Amino acid sequence: MNSIRTIFLYELWRGVRRKGYLFATFGIPVILFVLMFGYNFIQSLQEPSAPDMSQFDFDGIEHAGIVDLSGQFTEIPTALHEILQFYPDESAARTAMQADEVDVFYVIAADYLESGDVTLHLPDFSLSLLNNGPVEQLVYRTLAPDASPQLLQRLGEPVTIEPYNLQRANDAAQDEDADFLMIYVFTIVFLMALFLTNSYLLQTVVEEKENRVIEILVSSVTPGQLLAGKILAMSLLGIGQIVVWIAALLLALRIVVDLEAFATVTVLLNIRIQMDILPLMLVYFILGYLLFAAIYAGVGALAGSLRESSQYVALFSIMAVLPFYVFTVFVQTPNGTLPVVMSIIPVTAPIAMMMRLNVTTVPPLEIAISLLLLVLCVALLMWVAGRLFRVQTLLAGKFPKLRDIPNLIRG
Amino acid sequence: MTTTAITTRHIAKAYGDFQAVADVHFDVYKGEIFALLGPNGAGKSTTIRMILDIIKPDKGSIEVLGGKLTEAAKNRVGYLPEERGLYKSVSVIEMMVYLGKLKGMAGKDAHKKAMGLLQKLELADFAKKKVSELSKGMQQKVQFAVTVIHDPELIIIDEPFSGLDPVNRMVIRDLLFDFRQRGGAVVMSTHQMNQVEEMADRMLMISRGQQKLYGAVDDIRKQFALHAIVVEGKGDWAALPGVTQVEPHSNGRSGALLHLAENATSDSVLAAIAQSPTMQIEKFELAIPSLDDIFIRVAGEDKAS
């Protein structure tokens, strides 16, 4: 037990000092907040999108032609006499533009009231001419000729949304987009923590093998103790990482609703975090972690180099993320055949069950079967990894043939 | 209190169809340096790994320090494998303390002992350096320090002098002698026969997994002694009574190897030389083969068979 503690503490100490771990654990949340606040800040610097009705500065446009096919605009408002000029058709307007009488001309579509379509014709491409101000002034001043500048300003930006999210309090309606986002974010967080810390486990196993420290270690402790100490340390690192990320995510979701730049992203307002399923998700995370830890450790024990082992573990990692590839099925029919089967097969269960738990109520029997199979599979793979750890010192840096692996496991 | 550090009884290990070790049977006593010899692939590493419980024997029994190699007993054994193993990216002292703690030492004790050993090996200034920054010879010395950091009663050491210059070789040799002096047992696996002749008290030679020679080093050399003497000097050696054949000595110098008749002895030949006014001797010794010769002969015979 003392040896396990020594290995655990040493691996933990080595792990938390890894630059990659520190960056992933704390750097990613920092980047999230920087992006969030940065976007909000940049948005706040930008000029309001509503037209300023008192301004008649239209960049490079001093004179513009109007071809009204809708019949809605019969005369030029007084304030725009110096700027706008009607033309009966496109060819007349084009002739005027070619003769430099106007800088640009707008064609208001026949179905303008239904579609709002207006086409801007330019003599050549110029950013200073890409301006819809003149025609907006025409519309406002024709449709609301008596409106004050303040009213026109308000018409340009009719409402400023102040969200108050009833769903968060009542948990009343379902929002498929919010559920989708929830699954997406949580699955990404889960997978990153799972594979990142297990990749450290793989690294330490292969490193000790490449450095030949393994032979000294197994002359001091049993392979089982070595494996247990390493896996416990990496599990704690993984859990620590996921706790930091989820805390950052919860904080970000709490903050984001108050940021003006995100006020119209209603999907964020509808995200529901079900605190009651978090403990079960943690159980799935730990079991999923241990399952892949055993796989990674076993592969690390067999492989001769980090590159070689990475190729082999990639095969298992693909299996783990399979539910993620069909997440639309999980959102639409979380209790359908495919999600149910995937949440019971041990290698896909951690991700699949976590996805289902977020969007539906999973029958307790399915959870029980899934957990039982997962626990059995973890126990079996841990035993196999322990056996492979014992024989790894005999392998001379070359991945054994598949048919030899059962013999190695038997010792 | 037992005086036996290792007792093996008819141990055997096969990997599939390949019999790595077959019926090996030996004891190692406290206060001795025991050499484990054999050509490459003879089964030396497998034997060591079985002693250390890294792999299990298919047959036979092994006792280490008076019983099974429990976790507590492992803490009384130091092991230096042939393929040296050190963490490259951590500091020397950090690695030594960790490996000391794995041998049951308290952190403070491990640190104190590690610094003492580094001082003795003239590596104290490198304690905080990363292992990867050390030269190969320095790494070898650190490796040796790791092996003895926990004051073991038994050291199993594979090629202890590989990669060391003559000065550092002497330092390590003296540490091993000192360890033996204090009652420790050393199992030394090596190909360097001169070191075995110089350091080992007893030896075991295995070839193709089979036990070939076992006993005190001097006894084994005498066992292979020819009925002959080696002389250096001047004179007609063939004219001496009792000498049946003269051939140049294999050491390539000026000596001659004199084969004796069955009824002749080295004493009678020496007396004859002393009485001869025309002969002068600078060296006179029994023709006892070196361990190198014995090794080549035994391994060669085994290969031929």
What does this structure look like?
The complex is a heterodimer of chains A (411) and B (305). Chain A is mainly alpha-helical. Chain A is 63% helix and 4% strand. Chain A has 2 domains: 2-35 and 174-410, no CATH class; 64-156, D-Maltodextrin-Binding Protein, domain 2. Chain A contains 19 helices and 4 strands. In chain A, strands 2-1-3-4 form a 4-stranded mixed β-sheet. The radius of gyration of chain A is 32 Å and the shape is elongated. Chain B folds into 3 domains: 1-76 and 152-224, Rossmann fold; 85-149, no CATH class; 226-287, 2-Layer Sandwich (Alpha-Beta Plaits). Chain B is 34% helix and 29% strand. Chain B has 10 helices and 13 strands. The longest helix of chain B has 16 residues, at 166-181. Chain B is globular. The mean pLDDT of chain B is 87. Classes of the chains: A mainly alpha (411), B alpha/beta (305).
Features of this protein?
heterodimer; A: mainly alpha; 2 domains; 19 helices; 4 strands; elongated; B: 305 residues; alpha/beta; Rossmann fold; Alpha-Beta Plaits; 3 domains; 6-stranded mixed beta sheet; 4-stranded antiparallel beta sheet; 10 helices; 29% strand; globular
CATH topology of the largest domain in chain B: Rossmann fold
* Overall pLDDT confidence of chain A: 80
Q: What is the CATH C-level name of the largest domain in chain B?
A: Alpha Beta
Helix/sheet category of chain A: mainly alpha
The SSE order of chain B reads: EEEHEHEHHHEHEHEEHEEEHEH
Largest sheet: number of strands, sense, barrel closure of chain A: 4 strands, mixed
Known CATH architecture of the largest domain in chain B: 3-Layer(aba) Sandwich
Helix content of chain B: 25-40%
Structural class of chain B: alpha/beta
Beta-strand fraction estimate of chain B: 25-35%
Question: For the CA atoms, what is the radius of gyration of chain A?
Answer: 32 Å
Based on Cα principal axes, name the global outline of chain B. Answer: globular
Alpha plus pi helix count of chain B: 10
Percentage of β-strand residues of chain A: under 5%
Number of strands of chain A: 4
Distance between the termini of chain A: 24 Å
